[in-house]
Amino acid sequence: MSGPGLDARLIAAHDPVNKPALVRLYTEAADSANDIDASCFFLTHAYVFALDAGHPDARTLHARLKAHGRES
Amino acid sequence: MTNVTDLSNVRANVETANGLPNAHYIDPAIFDEEKQAVLFSQWTGLAVASDVPEPGDAVPLTFLGMPLLLIRDKEGDVRVFQNICRHRGMILVDKPRKIEGAIRCPYHSWCYSTKGKLVSTPHVGGPGQNTHEAINRDTLGLNEVRSHVWRDVVWINVSGDAPAFDDAMSHIIDRWSEFDLPLHHGGYDSRFTLELNTNWKLAVENYCESYHLPWVHPGLNSYSRLEDHYNIEEPGAYSGQGTMVYRQITDENGDRFTDFADVGQKWNEQAEYIAVYPNVLLGVHRDHAFAIVLEPQGPERTVEHIHLYYAQPDTPEGLRARNTQLWKTVFEEDVFVVEGMQKGRHVPGFDGGRFSPVMDSPTHCFHAWVAGKFEAHRGQRTAAE
Q1: Which of these, A71, A2, A7, A65, lies nearest to A32 by C-alpha position?
Q2: pTM of this structure
Q3: Partner residue facing A53 (CB), from B101, B120, B130
């Protein structure tokens, strides 16, 4: 995970839960990860919180995971 | 092993029958047997659809110890699910809330659509691997409980093998076909609950007879006398009472509620109060209706969930409040009766009581139905052993 203070921003977005922020920050973490497994781990979290929130990014995140063989 | 009660005389003619034995009101073992024999096997009232007015609204409920989730899906259909994740059996929704997107399990974040479809299984095949050949999402949706909405009541059939709702309830649907019109819940001021130290059946039994009215509800005597009432009995389905002298409520300006359109002249002064077996008490009048869902919480504990309905969505607030108070007073007047009869069931050797052949036949009709369901259940169990 990288980006200035990303870890702290993620922790802050979990308490209290800010779902749009979690979608954005986990996507940021996925985009800045060094390998595909780490990236898909964070993409998964972004996707789950997008599903939970009915967030419009859910479709794109699902497509990215599916492209990597990580979603059906 | 449940102690088998003797029900041989409960189904006899009303002139010679006795009521259900004490154990059917106080014995936890009989209460457990009753779940299977009477409550899970029928179409039983759970809640009202107005509890989830908007798509995504979700309310967790406990029905006879079973965690359920009442939800209005994104298409607007009311559904009832077991409120547990198919993964580890974790409770999914622990308080009423709006499901914005998916129902996400708070444990490992398996996600379900509001229609119950399993849509995400994060890390199920390892970190970042969200599928696994052993996990077939199509077979792991939320377990849905068979449900049907009629007169805003959400009825469930837990066993899943009752006849279709419209067939099982055809008698009452036909009887009140003139009232098959849109019902509008009166809102926050038109719902209340009464928590009772009684068995749910005593609430049914008291509701469906008019015999007690002049003694317990003396305020009704001024215009609704005992002789103005009639018995309603449909063995195997429902029983209750009707009145021929319903008088509309008015406010200080003499204003009244708008009538349900086209219900017919018959209902100008007639109203009916029917217990739809097992646990839903309904009332219809030309200008309003109500539904009482009895929630059995234990052999000696019941919660009445009371809801008032009108013909139009917007009704005068003052008039609505007055009507709610009127019915609250009436139903509260019944509390000492149902709680008193409950205490009475602790007298050893009470024979279930004797019925007035004329005035108590709707109550006897209910007793006979309950006894019949127990006998059928016990017969099936014996045959299976």
Answers
A1: A2
A2: 0.95
A3: B101
Per residue in B1-10, pLDDT (tens digit) is 446 899 999 9
Of B260, B259, B288, the closest CA to residue B272 belongs to B288
The Cα B83–Cα B106 span in angstroms is 12
Collect all residues from B whose CB is shorter than 8 A from any CB in A: 100-102, 104, 109, 111, 119-120, 122-123, 127-131, 137
With contacts defined as CB-CB under 8 Å, which chain A residues touch B120?
47-48, 51, 71
Which residues on neighbouring strands pair with residue B44, listed in sequence order?
B156
A52, B129: Cβ pair inside 8 Å? Answer: no
**ipTM, 2 decimals?**
0.95
| Spatial distance between the Cα atoms of A12 and B200, rounded to a whole number of angstroms | 49
As averages over each run of 10 residues, the pLDDT of chain B (385 residues) reads 82 97 98 97 98 98 98 98 98 98 98 98 97 98 98 98 98 96 97 98 96 88 79 96 93 92 89 97 97 98 98 95 96 97 97 96 98 95 81
Q: Which two tokens stand for residue A33?
A: 């990860």
The structure tokens listed for B342 are 């409950």
Cα nearest neighbour of A46 on chain B: B122
- Chain A positions touching B104 (Cβ under 8 A) are 48, 51-52
- The encoded tokens of residue B274 equal 């029917």
